[in-house]
Amino acid sequence: MTRAVIFDLDGTLIDSAPDIHAAANRLMERHGMAPFTPPETRDFVGKGVPHFIGCCLKARDRDGDAGLHAQLVAEFVAGYETAVTLTQVYPGVAAALADLSRMGHRLAICTNKPLAPARAVLAHLGLDAHFAVVIGGDSLDLRKPDPAPLHAAARALGARDVLFVGDSEVDAETAARARLPFALYTQGYRKAPVEALPHTRAFDHFDALPGIVADLLP
Kind and range of the H or E element at 116? Predict the structure, then answer.
């Protein structure tokens, strides 16, 4: 039986918050709005680009302008594919992915980041070869925390024994709704305390992940 580990991307495998912050501020400057601090844009991350732009506009008292929202979503997505230069891989990720592959697990990405930017940043960071399947925020009509994207990734891998790895409230809810075990990376973008998020295991460095996987997917 195929065993699989499915990962969130932003805040889990990669720290993309600096690139997202820079892209948001370029957009704000272009439209005559005040810039954001890094913690502000980091708090907006997790539910896809339309939600992110909605948070930006709400913070600038412009959330009632549907036309502006649509325009900014389109502009942000257009520049998102090249927003990779400030993004870094979290420590231990590359070694953990290699170990999991050697252990016989198939690997996938399930992210709310649009598919093209997700693939672009994986390729830029040299991580793309590890993943047989990438499900983005625009791959289906639904996004996390709906469990449909996670189920789609598992189906695409042909896997029934699945562990989901993520960093946030959205990821924890997605795993719970999908009824799958969840490993919480504690150094990502969550806002709530670790104990407030439902999880099977928690870890603060990717050195620990292969052992967690071995325990949960023997």
Answer: helix 115-124
Q: Which pLDDT tens digit goes with each residue over 183-196?
A: 999 999 999 999 99
Tell me the mean pLDDT in the region 106-118.
96
- pTM passes above 0.85: yes
Q: Active-site positions?
A: 8
∠ Cα 103 109 113 (to 5°): 160
d(C-alpha 175, C-alpha 145), whole Å: 8
pLDDT at position 89 over 90: yes
CA–CA distance, 62 with 33 (Å, rounded to integer): 10
Closest CA to 148 of 159, 162, 137: 137
